[in-house]
Every structure is written in C-alpha cells, then in structure tokens.
Write a structure and sequence with these properties.
The chain is α+β, with helices and mostly antiparallel strands and 187 residues long. The chain has 5 helices and 8 strands. The chain binds coenzyme A (COA). InterPro entries: Acyl_CoA_acyltransferase, GNAT_dom, N-acetyltransferase.
C-alpha cells in the first residue's frame, strides 16, 4: 500500500518521495508558485531551489524513518514531480491519527488527480500505517480543496479561527476528518 504500483491516472502514479526528487520539486513548486500562493505559507526564496528542497526532504525523510510522517509524490511518466501528498504528525496509541497536506502542479490541476491520490493515501494510512483517522484543514475559501476532501470521503467537523499562518496572515480554517475504520487499533 505504501509502494502502490497502480496508476492514479494515465501517465501519473503515486510513489514515496525520495531525496532524489529535490530538483524536480523545485521546478514544480516554482512553476506553481503563483497558483498556490493564496493557500500556502509565505516561503523563503531558498524553498524554490533544489538545495532548499533537499533540505526540506531530508527533514521529512528523517520524520518518516522515525514513524512520524509519510511523504509521497505524484510522478509523471518521466518520473517528474507533478504533485505531493504528505501525512504528517503521525501519532499512534489510542489516537492513531495523521494530518494530510497536498498540492497538485498547476499544469495538472482540475483533472481529478488530488481526489484520486487522497483516496490512495487514506488506503495506505489504514492498511499500511494502521491509522484510524486522517485530518485536514483548508483556508475557509479554498473551495477546490474542500471539494477534494468531500469527494474523498471526509466530513467537515468545524471551523478553527486563526488556525494557520497562510499567505501572510493567521487564517480561519475549515477542519475535516475521515474515519478510516471502526475496528480495534492494528498496526
Ligand atoms: C486543491 C488542489 C489540490 C486540487 O487538486 P486537483 O487535482 O485540481 O483536484 P480535483 O481535480 O481532484 O478536484 C477539484 C475539485 O474542485 C473543484 N474546483 C476547482 N476550482 C474550484 C473553485 N475555484 N471553486 C469551486 N470548486 C472548484 C473542481 O471542479 C473539482 O470538483 P468536481 O470534480 O466536483 O468538479 C489544487 O488545486 C492545488 O494544489 N491547489 C493549491 C494548493 C492547495 O490548495 N492545497 C491544499 C491546501 S488545504
């Protein structure tokens, strides 16, 4: 489930992120920068460089090795990054929960990729990571992201005032969750 070989769509698959994706991440994030600005924290210029992405990925992969995160990329048929899905803040014990974040390359948006990938990530969270719940938060007017979550089986559970610092301000967010199963905890 973590290494799912089924294609997501024609020419696009979901696979675990690697350090070797840094250059491709920098290109996709640079290409999509203006498109993503309203929904993202303000990033330093270094974030858009291969070196900045290598540093970010190294941290994320260390978190993965410690069981706290699971980063995937959406890769095209030349294995270039065209989006990303990340489960972060993974907790076990009685919570068995993770936070979901994602983006899709501006050139690939609006074709159902995010919805398909969120569905796959939830399968991996349940069957591969043994989680019970995935949560996500969107800026109140990020309608596309809310639509993705609703299509992927999430329910809105409330609104959190001034929840995250996005596009230069503490912004209210809609909070979503998907319960993955009602069985006992398993690993
Ligand atoms: C949000 C995002 C991930 C969606 O990716 P995607 O691959 O285009 O998503 P999908 O094609 O699976 O679904 C998008 C849905 O939103 C709808 N949508 C898109 N733009 C919209 C808008 N401005 N208003 C309302 N609905 C919108 C689409 O019509 C579609 O719904 P439908 O299938 O019912 O027609 C992508 O736009 C993105 O990366 N945005 C910038 C980063 C971001 O917002 N990340 C999420 C932070 S919570």
């Amino acid at each position: 489930m973590i290494n799912d070989i089924r294609p997501l769509a024609a020419g696009v698959r979901l696979r675990p992120a690697t350090l070797g994706d840094a250059g491709s991440f920098a290109e996709a994030l640079t290409r999509s920068r203006a498109y993503m600005r309203r929904w993202e924290p303000v990033r330093p210029e270094a974030f858009y460089t291969p070196q900045g992405q290598a540093q970010r990925l190294a941290g994320l992969l260390a978190d993965r090795d410690a069981g706290r995160a699971m980063p995937w990329v959406l890769a095209d048929d030349e294995d270039r990054v065209v989006g990303a899905m990340t489960l972060a803040s993974i907790e076990r014990g009685p919570f068995r929960n993770a936070r979901l974040g994602y983006w899709i390359d501006v050139e690939r948006a609006g074709r159902g990729l995010a919805t398909a990938a969120v569905g796959r990530v939830c399968e991996a969270a349940r069957d591969g990571l043994g989680l019970h719940r995935v949560e996500a938060a969107t800026v109140v007017d990020n309608t596309a992201s809310q639509r993705v979550l609703t299509k992927a089986g999430f329910e809105q559970i409330g609104t959190a005032p001034r929840y995250l610092h996005i596009d230069g301000a503490w912004q209210d967010h809609r909070m979503f969750q998907r319960i993955l199963h009602d069985g006992p905890p398993h690993s």
